[in-house]
Amino acid sequence: MVATANQQLLLFPLPPSAPPPDPDGYATWHLCIFIDGDDVRAELSFMNDFGSGSFTDCHERIILVGPDDWAKVEIEDNPDLGPEFVPEVKRR
Amino acid sequence: MFNPARLSLARRRRKLTKKSLAEALQLDQKTIVRWERGEVEPLPENTRALSKVLDFPEKFFEGSDIDEFLTEAASFRSLSTMPARDRDAALAAGALAFILSDWVDTLFTLPVHDLLDLKEDVDPEAGAKYLRQKWSLGERPVRNMVHLLETKGVRIFSLAENTRTVDAFSLWRRDIPYVFLNTTKTAERSRFDAAHELGHLIVHRHGGPHGRVAEEQANQFASAFLMPEAQVRATLPRVCSLNEIVQGKKFWGVSVSALNYRLHKLNITTEWQYRTFCIQIMQRYAQSEPFGQKRERSAIWEKVFTSLWSDRITKHSIAETLALPVAEIETLVFGLTNMQSIDGQGAGGGKSRAKLRLVRFGD
């Protein structure tokens, strides 16, 4: 599951998050993965608030696989290597 | 007349101390010291013994002075951890290369250098970009580093120093840039070493930082020269697995580790990814480079020795003319003398004399 990318938040940013709970010196991070065919995304989230079955705010998000990141990178097997250099050697 | 400097050079080339040479000759160490200082000249029988122990022709010890360079004049990779005997042996090989190079210059015209002269404090990444522009390389992978450098006037010699610490070194001599590559490393490593030394020749020609800073700058230059930023970003905009780096290394002709490092320096991979890939590389490819490429060899020495061979000048006659051991010449020129050798000694596929047989036809 991935948090909705709400562009409005850029215009109207959320108020500063509450300081992260740290009762025992531990923090809980969630690894969130979304798979829909070739559309794969993943992030590591340090969540802050939940609502209507989804989390609505987080302290920190680390995007591991962003939109379009999953597509396979194709590298040419026979790249254009550029010119062949042949040093000139002349007999005196 | 006996030349003390040549004795010292031959001894260092063989990684012998004065003490160990004295022991091999069953002489007092002070005798070696006096010979090398020129205080006393060895007797003919001593010179014969020196020739035998050091495996240098007797005539070698009678030659004129040889150009030798101080350690500071040459750029060595891990100088601080390099045993002095390894460094001195490599430098001595360089001095022998000058003898060969000077002799070849009397017979052939070789390319004049076309390197940049970066007098100002230029960022190595920018220096690599300027040089690519100057040489009209665009952003494409370099097909053959040795041939490219030779075409641009760099004299390249090979070293066969079986030590971990001697990778390569370079220096300027009489406005000619020289690079010495240790061919006991992998082909990818040698390509990177060649680019690294090119960085030293260009960025540090007029002095500048030494030691670790200079080495890092030369590495930055080599990375940028072999793996130009724009092309890396266009070809590998993101990396999800080590397999993609392995594919990429074939594209640029570098090691997996070199590309992994470059991707991290360009912020294409995160610190975490970089570390993960480093561990995977160690696990999978610690013993050998995947898809290892063919070793690059000198085109100049191949042409020179082919031409000499057409005049029936063999490696043995060259060695005799220059009073050098045949093996030293072979080592310095990528073993290419074997190609043209009539006796075919050594690793290469030598040409053999035609074998003629008298055939009797039936009556």
Q: Spans of chain A with pLDDT under 50 lasting ≥5 residues?
A: 1-9
**Low-confidence stretches of chain B at least 5 residues in length (pLDDT < 50)?**
342-352
Main-sheet strand order of chain A equals 1-2-3
Structural class of chain A: mainly beta
What can be said about the biggest beta sheet of chain B? Answer: 3 strands, mixed
| Percent range for β-strand residues of chain A | 35-45%
Oligomer: heterodimer
Secondary-structure element sequence of chain A?
A: HEEEE
In the CATH hierarchy, what is the architecture of the domain at 1-65 in chain B at level 2?
Answer: Orthogonal Bundle
Fraction in helix of chain B: 40-55%
Overall spatial form of chain A: elongated
Find the biggest chain interface.
A-B, 21 and 35 residues
User: Terminal Cα separation of chain A, in Å?
Assistant: 75 Å
What is the highest CATH level, the class of the domain at 1-65 in chain B?
Answer: Mainly Alpha
Mean pLDDT of chain B: 87
Using only CA atoms, what is the Rg of chain A? Answer: 24 Å
